[in-house]
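Justification of resources, computational component.

The compute hours requested in this renewal are based largely on the per-chain cost of generating structure records like the one below. Each record pairs the submitted sequence with a full structure-token output. That output is archived, and it is also reused by downstream analysis tasks.
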Amino acid sequence: MLGISWQIRLVLVLGSLITVAFVLRRVRQARMQIEDSIFWLLFAFFMFILSLVPQVAYWVSNVFRFQSPINVVYLAIIFILFVKQFFMSIQLSQMDSKIRALTQKVALNEEKIEREKDDL
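The structure output for this chain reads:
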């Protein structure tokens, strides 16, 4: 049975530590919202746990009959990022609607101000 090599485990540990450092730096600089930082910290924690306790990947690969535990790791990471992308798309659509409504309100207010100037 193929396992999770020490190189992959090292990449997961380094990736999770770099992610945590980057997220914490962005939060301190007030360039990241708390909700987003929580997601990325949990994602880094997930990667860290998978690198320290590879038995989880072995167990899941046995239950779902994956050929290799590393496929479980890749699939889990891809799935998590797809879910994040889906929620970001929803958030982007909502923000787009709000920006459009706000732009229309600003345009109406500017027109109202111009009309009031003309009436004077």
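The two ends are 85 Å apart (CA to CA). The first helix runs from residue 6 to 28.
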